[in-house]
Inverse folding.
């Protein structure tokens, strides 16, 4: 699809805190909490800085609920998959970044269309996927419109799935307008997680984002519309929190409209019990035909996004691995296997739900996670004694499972890890997939990747060709392939240890790479 | 009596209109995204999906008069000027 190529590159980097979890006889225990240089936690006195690495300081009960959820736990996203079923085409509001020829841009990347399903077709698809991809643990209803603007279809799908596949966690996404009316239905439907898209808490700003809403059989416009919407969203969030449902807040960052204001939004949702805040970049190009696309509203740069995410981190976990998946996405985050599961194909498949097989598979995944963490811990023990202020950023080519298992030439995205004596911390993603299409030769792809990861000291890959290898070395980025198919954390820490050693012995000099420009940090911290 | 019970218009007795007097709405198929937002909102169940397209049965449409202040399909439709008055059909008396 042509529009895919125009998709913005989302790159998120974050420095600061680090949590590492050790797994002990099935129970995850926090073993190291290192928050040196953690601005946010120093400020709040909080021991952890997110659900990135492992359990951190999450209460056991919450960790149990999020540990298999690829969106709610950064660590889980290496191992577990989610799927969305597109059963909810209608919407009850209009957003300026959305063109409803396509899917909802709140939860999906704009410019893609999903195959709409009936609840019965959706359930068949869920079972087919659950059987083929046993690490699929989460089903979400995220459009293509608003889950709660299609209550009959949404709740019917959830009920059918609960019946057929009781071990699958359910989530749904909503703009929040109808939320207060459905909170009890959501509880009854055993929904684990709800995502609410909240872009503002100030109706004046809301009027610039939402031209109208449809509420109580009336169309409202302007500030009145935005006031109703924000009241309903916050009320819905409070009601869900009271009932113990985990809420993730999605916010679309729109430069010069709500960028600075999202700090206020962050405070408002934190105080109302939201669990995770996911600030996503506006993706805006004229071809999508959205109001913002047509009026030239730009999206934020990776750096602007990171600065804002950093400014918001503190009392609430910030999500930094969101892939803005489409409403019919299937698979691990970052991969999309929806093409294998079109309605036609699903109808042809022999679907039979095998709970035992899924349980056994997931047990193996858990064992993998345990050994991954243990291997990382062991490696870390070697560096933690060293006192070194050096932090370096490295890029990793991976297909999942926490392994360095992707060929440099095939990587659609690189995962960024920040390495320091406190360990390896996942800090974001750099996408390159949009560029590897026809019209771009190898040469171009390489220079695009080098630009995207220019702030990295090394790139870890399973394999790399001679040409890109020398290109990277010339650009000062070390291609590392001796850790092929090994665990990311263990390998990156081992490399880091050697790096620090070389610096100490004076063999090489540590240089900070490509420090990106600051923006709008000053304004934000003043706000 | 009948005026109070009438789900359609609730007009004064004596001024009950025949169904042609309503202004039927239609959906401009080329603009419709088939999002289904309008369908459950129609108080007269005039909207249905026919082979992937949403259509309004003109004979059932009352322009929502007596039910709501605005035509529901037009108010909820995400595409401007897609649920519109069908001028091709007779219109004896525009509602005030
Ligand atoms: S869009 Fe973001 S939150 Fe939703 S499934 Fe994808 S990664 Fe998770
Ligand atoms: S105007 Fe009202 S009665 Fe007519 S089709 Fe639309 S919703 Fe139904
Ligand atoms: S609301 Fe509009 S776009 Fe959606 S199905 Fe009805 S007529 Fe079509």
């Amino acid at each position: 699809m042509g529009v895919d190529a125009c998709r913005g590159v989302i790159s998120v980097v974050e420095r600061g805190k680090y949590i590492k979890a050790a797994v002990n006889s099935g129970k995850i225990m926090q073993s190291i909490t290192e928050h040196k240089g953690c601005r946010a936690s120093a400020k709040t006195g909080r021991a952890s800085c997110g659900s990135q690495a492992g359990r951190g300081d999450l209460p056991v009960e919450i960790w149990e609920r999020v540990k298999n959820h690829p969106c709610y736990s950064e660590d889980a996203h290496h191992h577990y998959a989610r799927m969305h079923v597109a059963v909810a085409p209608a919407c009850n509001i209009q957003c300026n970044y959305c063109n409803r020829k396509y899917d909802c841009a709140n939860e999906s990347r704009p410019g893609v269309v999903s195959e709409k399903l009936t609840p019965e077709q959706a359930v068949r698809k869920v079972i087919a996927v659950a059987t083929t991809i046993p690490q699929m643990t989460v089903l979400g209803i995220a459009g293509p419109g608003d889950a709660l603007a299609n209550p009959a279809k949404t709740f019917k799908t959830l009920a059918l799935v609960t019946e057929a596949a009781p071990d699958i966690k359910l989530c749904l996404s909503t703009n929040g307008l109808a939320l207060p009316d459905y909170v009890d239905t959501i509880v009854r439907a055993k929904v684990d997680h709800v995502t609410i898209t909240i872009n503002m808490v100030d109706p004046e700003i809301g009027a610039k984002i939402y031209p109208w809403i449809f509420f109580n059989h009336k169309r409202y416009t302007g500030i009145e519309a935005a006031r109703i919407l924000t009241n309903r969203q916050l009320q819905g969030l409070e009601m869900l929190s009271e009932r113990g449902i985990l809420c993730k807040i999605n916010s679309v960052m729109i430069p010069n409209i709500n960028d600075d204001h999202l700090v206020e939004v962050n405070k408002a949702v934190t105080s109302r019990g939201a669990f995770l805040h996911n600030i996503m970049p506006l993706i805006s190009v004229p071809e999508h035909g959205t109001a913002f696309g047509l009026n030239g509203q730009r999206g934020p740069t990776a750096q602007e996004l990171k600065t804002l995410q950093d400014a918001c981190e503190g009392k609430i976990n910030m999500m930094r691995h969101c892939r803005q998946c489409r409403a019919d996405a299937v698979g691990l985050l970052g991969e999309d296997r929806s093409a294998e599961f079109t309605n036609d194909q699903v109808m042809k498949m022999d679907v039979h739900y095998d709970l035992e097989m899924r349980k056994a598979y997931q047990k193996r995944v858990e064992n993998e996670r345990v050994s991954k963490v243990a291997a990382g811990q062991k490696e870390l023990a070697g560096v933690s004694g060293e006192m070194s202020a050096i932090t370096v950023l490295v890029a990793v080519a991976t297909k999942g499972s926490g392994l360095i298992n992707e060929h440099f030439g095939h990587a659609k995205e690189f995962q960024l890890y920040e390495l320091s004596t406190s360990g390896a911390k996942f800090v974001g993603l750099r996408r390159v997939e949009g560029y590897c299409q026809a019209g771009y030769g190898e040469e171009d792809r390489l220079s695009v990747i080098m630009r995207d990861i220019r702030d990295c000291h090394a790139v870890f890959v399973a394999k790399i060709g001679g040409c890109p290898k020398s290109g990277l070395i010339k650009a000062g980025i070390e291609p590392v392939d001796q850790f092929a198919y090994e665990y990311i954390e263990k390998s990156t820490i081992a490399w880091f240890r050697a790096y620090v050693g070389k610096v100490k012995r004076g063999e090489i000099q540590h240089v900070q790479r490509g420090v990106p420009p600051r923006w709008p940090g000053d304004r934000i911290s003043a706000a | 009596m009948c005026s109070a019970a009438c789900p359609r218009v609730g007009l004064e007795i004596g001024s009950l209109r025949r169904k042609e007097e309503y202004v039927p709405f239609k959906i401009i198929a080329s603009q419709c995204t088939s999002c289904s937002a309008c369908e459950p909102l129609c108080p007269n169940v005039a909207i249905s999906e026919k082979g992937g397209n949403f259509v309004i049965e003109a004979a059932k449409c009352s322009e929502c008069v007596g039910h709501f202040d605005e035509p529901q399909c037009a108010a909820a439709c995400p595409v401007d000027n897609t649920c519109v008055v069908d001028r091709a059909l007779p219109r004896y008396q525009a509602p005030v």
Observations:
- The interface with chain A takes residues 33-37, 40-41, 68-70, 72, 75-76, 78-79 of chain B (CB under 8 Å).
